[in-house]
Amino acid sequence: MRTTHDTPFTAKPDTLDPQDWEAVRSLGHRMVDDMVALLAGVGDGPVWQAMPGEVREAFKTPLPREAGDLAGSYADFQALVQPYIGGNIHPRFVGWVHGGGNPVGMLAELLAGGLNANLGGRDHAPVEVERQVIRWSAEMLGFPSTASGVLVTGTSLANLIAVLVARTRALGGAVRQDGLQGCPLVAYASTEAHNCVSRAMDMAGLGTAALRLIPCDAQHRMDMDALAAAVTHDQAQGLQPFMLVGSAGTVDTGAIDDLMALSRFSRLHGLWFHVDAAFGALAMLSAQKRPLLAGISEADSVAFDFHKWAQVPYDAGCILVRDADLHAATFATQPAYLRREERGLAAGRPWPTDFGPDLSRGFRALKVWMTIKVYGADKLGAVIDRSCELAQQLARRVAAEPELEMLAPVALNVVCFRFRAAAADLDQLNADIVADLQEDGLAVPSTTMINGQLAIRVALVNHRTSEADLALLVDGLLAAGRRRTAANPQMNSQGI
Amino acid sequence: MRTTHDTPFTAKPDTLDPQDWEAVRSLGHRMVDDMVALLAGVGDGPVWQAMPGEVREAFKTPLPREAGDLAGSYADFQALVQPYIGGNIHPRFVGWVHGGGNPVGMLAELLAGGLNANLGGRDHAPVEVERQVIRWSAEMLGFPSTASGVLVTGTSLANLIAVLVARTRALGGAVRQDGLQGCPLVAYASTEAHNCVSRAMDMAGLGTAALRLIPCDAQHRMDMDALAAAVTHDQAQGLQPFMLVGSAGTVDTGAIDDLMALSRFSRLHGLWFHVDAAFGALAMLSAQKRPLLAGISEADSVAFDFHKWAQVPYDAGCILVRDADLHAATFATQPAYLRREERGLAAGRPWPTDFGPDLSRGFRALKVWMTIKVYGADKLGAVIDRSCELAQQLARRVAAEPELEMLAPVALNVVCFRFRAAAADLDQLNADIVADLQEDGLAVPSTTMINGQLAIRVALVNHRTSEADLALLVDGLLAAGRRRTAANPQMNSQGI
Fold it and tell me: Which keywords describe this protein according to UniProt (chains A, B) (predicted)?
């Protein structure tokens, strides 16, 4: 599978720059052409295909000591990588919650790769681009323009930052030096909250057990009475409630907590109100969906991703914090080698590193900035409306098919359902159907558990998905279900 | 400064894909041409120039609602961003510890932007690329091939991961649920360790005070006797020493702790031995420098960056852990919506998200993989040798100039010195000289404090820097120093 290296890349004697820039330039053109062709025809091929064993093995070479051929390395990419991607650029990828990317963001990555900017700090335009992205985010979410924020890999990191800022507010800046000694802090989120909130509690040393998972109502939203009872109970135990995490677009069903009620509750009890809006935040760009998020503008912090519903290429998450001083008090330090000045390149404080854990930081802001500038917020909002409309259409189709069964209401853009049959193990049957569809390359939904039952989960996030794609998906999964039930006489899809 | 949007970008009605792929393709070609021209002539312009106020203001527009012009947005990039970058691609950027980037990595970013892969998990080739980068890293560092690892933004995150894995080893997996309750853990690093080790202790809830900063010898390496005394003292206090952090290439002077001694000490006292080798790790690719790192292969974990001495575009850090099980025990969770399967796209466990905090993860592995394949490890090692050689040359020049004074020995690639004069405030004078050089666009060194004195710090990391660049730098800073002392009759550069 591997290309022989006929023409080793020749760099100038003392640098990594090539003797022949023309070779880089012309290969760059070819890559642009190939990537445009890939995206222009992205729906034609399979969504995903399994890597043959020999492809997987072909990666496993010793560390190459000598220079390789530039075009040959690209040929390796074309042979080993491109055919076996996860497929989230494909219109029929509706698994997990993945954005589809966009060509403007792709070109921005080329530019960012060329500039090679480090956005940890200092006084240069790439940092201004990021600041503008943060200001636009504040505007989108109805936050004051004085809010602070920073781009990170994704909402997992953004939620960690939120937990740490809330920890500082609860315990004061001394916690940074002294650590958590017999710490009584407890936080609250719903049982539907994303697991990364719990991971953040773990990493921050507070422990996942200190995150109370509050039951939900039939709409998969946090039960406010249960929340009040939990807080009262914890206070009676001498614990210190410090943070309430609302979900705006839960991972399993897309449900949105009553953020207004959560905001009021937080204020009443002196809690830090954080919203995990990993994909939901972008629904603020839709006039139609914005009311569902009422209350998000009251939050102390919001975590979300641009690489999901805003279709910016991976990775690009964001944390926004209302109180910039508290945010900086959680992360800022000033070692001698990062001395800030009033002029020269070391000016421009506060620096992005004062608002998060990263000191080395790539120019992910550029792909966000260009995506927003070129498409405009209204178009991004229209894509979101369309996702939600497709989710409703799919829900109607599922309801109309006797062999299918909805497992959760559709709040936004996630549809959870299953194939019904007289199978002993419906969970296994539905997991098999999903894997069948994936292996056929026809479509990529994923699975989750809803009320103890395995659900086929279709998350409409990808801007390329159409009605026709969903029709193919449903037809395909009905066929797969029937095939599996026919193959096994114990099963009968009419039986339930 | 802003371009009028003559031709709003026209996407297809229901997606973000363009009506006209040709416009994307041809702009992509132009961007490749422009970036190649930028890099081919990168030494010609100023290293850095201050953003005029009107440029800074030009970013501050309301969130654009309507579509913009694609070429116009690129024109904005060219007018507002490209001229005002930090300058670390320029040969005379020797500030902080920044890599220069490389054109192969730049092209890889274009490809990664197109594929839009999410490397949090699942079974696809981009994850295999990352696994191969981790295997190559293990080979480079002399780790077993069973070591685990994951790419992150940078060493700040990688060090946090190391602290968390060490925390799990010390306290068991229960700490994830229970949090730190009256935790007696203490860790050790030298006074020269990078501040992000301390930040990691802070974030992990252990507190920065629980990181004992051990004094250094004249070579800026951790004093082993002082370390032994500190551990004995802490044990006597009933505290639990759990982690020892060695530095391989300190941020201020490039010093390398005696890693072999640290390894033996760790083993003797049951400590987790972590090495922060942010830039130093790559010196393993130099036959000449490798002996300085002896002992790194014995570490329990190593954190380092590919965007520094390996010149991969920002950002690309790495954590490598000897004990993959313990690594996974620190991060792995299995929520229902991330159910792992034996076949289909949800196969392929363990997933990268099992080894770090990120669930959404871009394809930063591709730029590392292609950089290594195209240049080969020997060429990267040669660049490192050359950096160290340039550092020695600069040190000789500094020693030969009566107006200059070395402030620390040169262990590897960092040269700390200052301009001498009869100034009342030599620290301010040297800070001014550095800012003068930056504002003139002539060169970008940075500053730090060495034994209480402000040093001009030249970190030779960038592959483009040459002898001629260093000559310009020294000539420029002598001229700046003389200008400043001449302007102030109190100062006299011969006076000391």
Answer: Decarboxylase, Lyase, Pyridoxal phosphate
Question: By the 8 A CB rule, do A198 and A212 touch?
Answer: no
- Using the structure block, give the residue that is written with the tokens 């681009």: A129
Which among B48, B115, B305 has the least Cβ separation from residue A89?
B115
| CA atoms of B127 and B351, how far apart (whole Å) | 8
Does one domain contain both A210 and A309? yes
Please report residues of A whose CB lies closer than 8 A to that of B25: 32-33, 36
Q: What is the pLDDT of residue A1?
A: 43
Contact between B16 and A122 using a beta-carbon 8 Å cutoff: no
Residue-level pLDDT at A423: 81
Which tokens in the block code for residue A339?
Answer: 């001395």
Quick check: is A394 in a domain?
A: yes
Nearest to A185 by CA among B165, B330, B180: B180
Range of the structural domain that residue A432 is part of: 378-487
The domain spanning residue A427 has which CATH number?
A: 3.90.1150.170
Question: Within a domain: residue A13?
Answer: no
- Tokens encoding B52: 């005029």
Size of interface A-B (CB pairs under 8 A): 582
- Residue A353, pLDDT > 60, answer yes
Q: Which of residues 85-144 of A touch B (CB under 8 A)?
A: 85-89, 95-96, 98-119, 122-126, 128-129, 131-132, 135-136, 139-140
3-state SS string for A92-148? CECCCCCCCCCHHHHHHHHHHHHHCCCCCCCCCHHHHHHHHHHHHHHHHHCCCCCCE
| Predicted pLDDT at B1 | 43
> Structurally, how many domains does chain A consist of?
3
Q: Do A317 and A358 have their domain in common?
A: yes
Q: In this structure, are A73 and A141 located in the same domain?
A: no
Q: Are B267 and B241 in contact (CB under 8 A)?
A: no
pLDDT in tens, A128-170: 999 999 999 999 999 999 999 999 999 999 999 999 999 999 9
A365 lies in the same domain as A228? yes
CATH assignment at residue A165: 3.40.640.10
What ipTM did this prediction achieve?
0.97
What pLDDT is attached to residue A360?
A: 97
| B261 inside domain | yes
Residue A116 has pLDDT above 70, yes or no: yes
Task: Please report which confidence band the pLDDT of residue A183 belongs to, taking 50, 70 and 90 as the band edges.
Answer: confident
Structure tokens at A13: 């004697």
pLDDT of B494 above 60: no
Q: To the nearest whole angstrom, how far is the Cα of A438 from the nearest Cα of chain B? A: 6
Please indicate, yes or no, whether residues A114 and A196 belong to a single structural domain of this protein. Answer: yes
Domain co-membership, A213 together with A303: yes
Q: Are strands A185-190 and A240-247 parallel, antiparallel or unpaired?
A: parallel
Among partner residues A101, A140, A438, which is closest to B63 by beta-carbon distance?
A140
**Are the beta carbons of B446 and A337 separated by less than 8 Å?**
yes
**A85–B360 CB contact, under 8 Å:** no
Domain final position from A341, A375, A409:
A375
Question: Can you give the pLDDT at residue A495?
Answer: 44
* Domain end marker among A352, A375, A398: A375
Shared domain for A314 and A260, answered yes or no, is yes
| Residue A75 parent element (H or E) | helix A70-76
B 343-402: CB under 8 A from A: 343-346, 357-364, 366-367, 370, 372-379, 383, 386
Question: Which pTM does this prediction carry?
Answer: 0.97
Q: Is residue B48 part of a domain?
A: no
